[in-house]
Design goal:
metalloaminopeptidase activity; 15 strands; metal ion binding; Creatinase/aminopeptidase-like; 289 residues; 5 helices; four-stranded antiparallel β-sheet; SEC_C_motif
Length: 289
């Protein structure tokens, strides 16, 4: 669709098109004409969108900080759920997971061989040596922020500690690979190389995602890939990098009873870190961590 240079920009900023996204659109068009996959306009954020996501991230980051202060052996995963739920509500947010496609809690808590989407329960008690992923997503004024962190309970095995460390490095390698006018495959390639170099595997059935006014929007962000392939990355895109790193094979399965909890197929340990990111003109900015 052609827009007059002096018409309001399609992004809703209120600025004239020529002063807002015209130059970006022209550059994207050059890639599209060469046959590259380019992002749809609806996932490119304006200044107000970015400000809204950052506001949500303040609450999201605070909830994860609180978990880090309180988490300990003997605590139930339901207690973590209550901590996150209450903190989020008290700070003007909405816990995004609660009732999302039927998910029953306000946070995901995944222990040891649980890859992701562990459902909090009064019956699940943290113990010495556990590694735990807590995944928090917050809505504030219609905008989402999403991040997860790993926590080690007391003294953990050297194997578990190394996995947690390398999983964080994998996320960081993926983030470092993001460049404006780079490609989605750059992220997955960097993550995959670091994991496999350390003897680990990356879950391929699950990945990161675009995020903004919608919990999960385009693009799907795979954590395996080939450099120079996949969607073009442009300034204004917001997405998560959240590799799930397994000590054993990459295969996973979903619990048939709750239809949510994802386990490693071979029972091996799994670890994951997640940040929400903004692609800028010069690189990448971490929004939620």
């Amino acid at each position: 669709m052609t827009i007059d240079r002096n018409a309001p920009c399609w992004c809703g900023s209120g600025k004239k098109y020529k002063k807002c996204h015209l130059s970006l659109d022209e550059k994207i068009k050059t890639y599209e004409l060469k046959g590259y996959e380019v992002p749809p306009r609806e996932i490119i954020k304006n200044e107000a969108d970015i400000a809204g996501m950052k506001k949500a991230a303040v609450v999201n980051n605070g909830a994860l900080d609180l978990v880090g202060e309180k988490i300990c052996a003997g605590m139930s995963t339901e207690e973590i759920n209550q901590l996150v739920h209450n903190y989020t509500i008290e700070h003007g947010g909405i816990p995004a997971p609660l009732n999302y496609e039927g998910y029953p809690k306000s946070v995901c808590v995944s222990i040891n061989n649980v890859v992701c989407h562990g459902i909090p329960s009064e019956d699940t008690i943290l113990k010495e040596g556990d590694i735990v992923n807590v995944d928090v997503t917050t809505i504030v004024d219609g905008y989402f922020a999403d991040a997860s962190r790993m926590y080690m309970i007391g003294k953990v095995s050297e194997e578990a500690e190394r996995l947690v460390r390398v999983a964080k490095e994998c996320m960081e390698k993926g983030i470092q690979a993001i460049k404006p006018w780079g490609f989605l495959g750059d992220i997955g390639a960097a993550v995959q190389e670091h994991a496999e170099k350390n003897g680990y595997s990356i879950v391929i059935d699950l990945g990161g995602h675009g995020i903004g006014k919608i919990f999960h929007e385009e693009p799907f962000v795979p954590h395996v890939g080939v450099r120079g392939e996949g969607m073009l990355l442009v300034p204004g895109m917001t997405l998560t990098v959240e590799p799930m790193v397994n000590a054993g094979g990459y295969e996973v399965y979903i619990d048939e009873e709750d239809d949510w909890t994802v386990y490693t197929e071979d029972g091996s340990l799994s670890a994951q870190w997640e940040h929400t990111l903004l692609i800028t003109e010069t690189g990448v900015e971490i929004i939620a961590h």
